[in-house]
Specification:
- The complex is a heterodimer of chains A (about 260) and B (about 250).
- Chain A is mostly helical and about 260 residues long.
- Chain A is built from nine helices and two strands, in the order αααααββαααα.
- Chain B has two domains: about 100 residues, Ubiquitin-like (UB roll) (Roll), CATH 3.10.20; about 130 residues, Alpha-helical ferredoxin (Fumarate Reductase Iron-sulfur Protein, Chain B, domain 2), CATH 1.10.1060.10.
- Chain B has a five-stranded mixed β-sheet with strand order 2-1-5-3-4. In chain B, strands 6-7 form a two-stranded antiparallel sheet.
- In chain B, helix 3 packs antiparallel against helix 5, helix 5 runs antiparallel to helix 6 and helix 6 crosses helix 8.
- The N and C termini of chain B lie far apart (about 65 Å).
- The chains are: A mainly alpha (about 260), B alpha+beta (about 250).
- The interface between A and B is large, with 50 and 61 residues.
Chain lengths: ~260, ~250
């Protein structure tokens, strides 16, 4: 008979939890990046997107998403810290010489420093939320969309933040470098943690995971940089024109 | 050829240990690493010193008894072989070679390079067997098993329980060992009877022995003398999840 006592949080359960929460957070990043691309379509599109997120399902969607993200973060951090602590306990006396067996090993600076890169990402998320989510939204003012609805001008908050201060842009770019390192090991490792990897798919999984990591990090790396490069070419308060915005950006990137 | 050795010496489980330097010359490159250590021990005995304690038995890579961390790599630099299969020609004359025991809390040190790996036996005793009454042996072909399944079971069963996965793991996790031991039964009809209880009990014992948690570094697979794939760890996790749902 199976005793349910056997099923308290085991090392395997911890890996399943880290994997599920990690992969979900990666999916969130994909959605977040795609959503943020509306920035390049101008204030109307971006503000309408923000308005949509906040009013979809009478505001229930955003609350559910925020609760989900918060609890996933908490579980992910708890299980990751727990794994990291077990490591110290399980090997009290360290090796004088540490090597890498090469071959099929995926041990790297990325995989060995997950707890450090994770801590930096947590710090970044706190700064990021403080700056955007908990910003004084009344102060950014409102704009009227083409359909006559008056919405908060969060576009001004975002564009203004990155165009005002290159130090802030640099901070974001550094944080995205750390995120890339975390995901270089994190994405494929999450799939393996869920037991989904087969011998035939393992090599592709590792490369695929790194590709997802680089794609996400490059996307988030370019956002603040491109916004900063568009500095002075347009007024953040100006009326929207997606085509005009795109051509301005192209002119900036490819002079002449 | 001649080599400089830095070997971990520790008189007993609770005595303090340290790396001690030795130099040894007139080594034949075709000698095995363990023969080189035998030679060192002969020299130490002649000089009236305590020889270096290390384990070995078959010296042909199948018993899983020998196991040393050579220059930071479990079973040495060659890969896919045990310590006894490492030859001195894999080193250069004049090299400094650091030799340490397998280090893990779950493998308490007995003396010098010898550690106690009974934790593996206790994990096996929780489910690494088939508890059906077989009676007298029946005809070999009465239970049909697909060739691919037999191969997969054999790949997992190739584990010799040497403990290199634990030694190589940055977290000192035993996931590859337990993964292989759980997997080998899942492919075979005889393993189905205790399929769910086996994985739950073996994982529980693994956790209580004080092994670390897995971080998917895959260093275990690279160090494994039998090249056991980490997909067996994934299989253990799938089996574990199924067993949890079967119990609810």
């Amino acid at each position: 008979m199976i005793n349910l006592q056997n099923i308290k949080i085991s090392s395997v359960t911890k890996k399943l939890l880290t994997g599920i929460t990690g992969l979900s957070l990666v999916l969130f990043l994909v959605a977040h990046l795609i959503g943020n691309l509306t920035l390049f379509a101008g204030p109307e599109v971006f503000n309408a997107y923000a308005q949509f997120l906040h009013h979809f399902m009478h505001g229930m969607f955003i609350r559910l998403a925020e609760f989900g993200l918060f609890s996933f973060f908490v579980i992910h951090i708890w299980s990751a810290v727990s794994v990291s602590l077990s490591k110290r306990k399980a090997r009290p006396s360290r090796y004088a010489v540490e090597g890498n067996a090469g071959g099929k090993s995926k041990k790297s600076l990325h995989s060995l420093n997950m707890i450090i890169s994770g801590s930096i990402i947590l710090l970044f998320v706190l700064v990021h939320l403080n700056h955007f989510k908990f910003a004084d939204h009344e102060a950014v003012g409102t704009m009227t969309l083409a359909n006559g609805v008056e919405v908060q001008n969060v576009y001004r908050l975002v564009v203004g933040s990155f165009q005002g201060n290159f130090g802030y842009v640099l901070f974001y770019m550094l944080a995205m470098g750390v995120l890339c390192s975390h995901l270089m090991h994190g994405v494929w490792s999450a799939v393996q943690s869920l037991g989904l990897a087969r011998p035939s798919t393992l090599p592709y999984l590792h490369i695929g995971g790194m590709a997802v990591a680089i794609a996400l990090a490059v996307g988030f790396f370019l956002l603040p940089l491109l916004i900063f490069m568009m500095r002075g070419t347009f007024d953040p308060n100006a009326m929207p024109d997606p085509v005009h915005h795109a051509s301005l950006l192209l002119n900036r990137l490819i002079p002449g | 050829m001649n080599v400089n050795l830095r070997i971990w010496r520790q008189p007993g489980p609770n005595a303090p240990g340290r790396l001690v330097d030795y130099s040894l010359d007139e080594i034949d490159p075709s000698q095995s690493f363990l023969e080189m250590l035998d030679k060192l021990n002969e020299k130490l005995i002649h000089e009236g010193q305590e020889p270096v304690a290390f384990e070995s038995d078959c010296r042909e890579g199948i018993c899983g008894n020998c196991g040393l961390v050579i220059n930071g790599i479990a079973h040495g630099p060659k890969g896919a072989c045990t310590t006894c299969e490492v030859r001195m020609r894999q080193f250069n004359s004049g090299d400094t070679i650091t030799v340490e025991p397998f280090r893990a809390k779950a493998f308490p040190l007995i003396k010098d390079l010898v550690v106690n790996r009974s934790a593996f036996d206790r994990i096996m005793s929780k489910g690494g067997f088939v508890a059906v009454n077989t009676g007298s042996a029946q005809d070999a072909n009465l239970i049909p098993i697909h060739k691919d399944d037999a191969e997969r079971a054999m790949d997992a069963a190739a584990c010799i329980g040497c403990g290199a996965c634990v030694a190589a793991c940055p977290n000192a996790s035993a996931s590859l060992f337990v993964g292989a031991k759980v997997s080998q039964f899942t492919w075979l009809p005889q393993g189905q009877v205790e399929r769910h209880t086996r994985v739950l009990k073996m994982v529980k014992q693994m956790d209580s022995e004080g092994f670390g948690d897995c971080s998917n570094h895959a260093e275990c697979e690279a160090a494994c003398p039998k090249e056991i794939s980490i997909s067996n760890i994934g299989r253990m996790r799938r089996e574990y999840t199924k067993a949890v749902f079967a119990a609810v």
